[in-house]
Amino acid sequence: MSIPKTMKAAILVEQHKPLVVDEVELPSSLDVGQVLVKVHYSGICGSQIGEIDGAKGEDKFLPHLLGHEASGSVVATGPGVKHVKEGDTVVMHWRKGLGIEGAPPQYRWRGQKLNAGWIATFNEYAIVAENRLTSIPTDSNLQVAALFGCAVTTGFGVIENNAKVRIGESVVVFGAGGVGLNIVQAAALVGAYPVIAVDVFDNRLALAKEMGATHCINAKTQDAQKAIEAIVGNQGLDVFIDNTGQPTIMELGYQITKAQGRVTLVGVPRKGNNIGIFSLPLHFGKVLSGSHGGESVPHEDIPRYQNLFNAGRIKLNELLTEVLPLDDINTAIDHMRSGQASGRCLIRMD
C-alpha cells in the first residue's frame, strides 16, 4: 500500500487550548528506519495533558502531534527495517525497543511544517521509528494492546525496576490514574501488603480496589498522612510512589517512609515547582529516585505482561473506561482532568 496523502490528526497548536482535529499531509516516502502504521486505538496519558498545560514550560516545537501509546498495524516499512514487517500487529511505545531510530517524519499542516517526534498516536496513520514498535500476535485484543505502550509497562516497571518491591512490603500509591492503577495491580501481584491507594476521586479508588488495593484513602475527605500511618502502624512505610507531581505530596512521601524506605517519583512537577527535603536520611539508607517509564524494555516486557493477561493473571479490560472517536478527543481529555474517567480513555481511529 502506498502512503496516504492525508490523514486526520489531533494537533497541539497552542498550549492551554483544546487540540485541533484537522487533515494533515504525510510525506510521499519512508526514510531509513521509518515504519508506516495504521493506528487502531491510542491511549491518552497524563504526559500529554502536561504538554497541553505547559507543565515543562514553553513549548518551542508548536504546532506538533501528540500521543505515545497505541495499537496499530504495519502498512509499509522503510529501508533497513527488520524487526517488524508489513501486516504485523504492533504496540506503539515511547520507550526504545529493537531496531533503528529513524528520523522523525516530515508532516505538513496548512502549508507549514508540523512537528512530530519518533512516535505520535493521536492520528489515523503514523510514521514511526522502528524502535518504537513491538510486534504482538495478530489475534491480540487491540484495545488492551494500546495500554502496553505506556500504562502497563510503566506501572509494572515502577514496581519491578524502580521501587523493587518485595513480598510483604507496604506500598502507598498516591494518584490512581491509568499508570497508578497498574502500579497498584503490580504491587498486589508481587505480594506487597498493605497496598494503599490514595486519590481524590472515589470512582478511581473503587477501581483501585478492584486492581488489588487493600486500603483506599480519599485525600480530599481524609487526612492522608494520618490514615496511612494508622494502617502501617509502628513498622513504618516501606515504599511510597507518587504519580501526582505535586511537591507537597513528594515531601509527604519522603517524610513518612521508614529510615530505609524508598520513594519513587513517577509524576512530573511543573517547571519551577521544587521540593524541599532534609537530605541526611539519604546517607543512612533512605532512597529517593525518579522513574523514566518504569525503565521498561518494551520488546522484553510486553510479551511477559501479555502472557499474564492471556492467562487471566492481570486485569486490563477493567481499566478501559471510555472509547471515543478522534473527533471527540478533547472530550476524553476533559473527562480525565475532571476525574470522570476512572481508568484509561482510548481514542478509536477506525
UniProtKB/TrEMBL annotation:
InterPro entries: ADH-like_C, ADH-like_N, ADH_Zn_CS, ER, GroES-like_sf, NAD(P)-bd_dom_sf
Entry superkingdom: Bacteria
Domain Enoyl reductase (ER): 14-347
Keywords associated with the record: Metal-binding, Oxidoreductase, Zinc
Molecular-function GO terms, alphabetical: oxidoreductase activity, acting on the CH-OH group of donors, NAD or NADP as acceptor; zinc ion binding
Cofactor(s) needed: Zn(2+)
Keyword Oxidoreductase part of the UniProt annotation: yes
SUPFAM superfamilies recorded: GroES-like, NAD(P)-binding Rossmann-fold domains
Gene3D superfamilies tied to this protein: Medium-chain alcohol dehydrogenases, catalytic domain, NAD(P)-binding Rossmann-like Domain
Pfam families xref list: ADH_N, ADH_zinc_N
Family label: Belongs to the zinc-containing alcohol dehydrogenase family.
PANTHER family (UniProt xref): NAD-DEPENDENT ALCOHOL DEHYDROGENASE, S-NITROSOMYCOTHIOL REDUCTASE MSCR
Protein known as: Dehydrogenase
Organism expressing this protein natively: Rhodoferax saidenbachensis
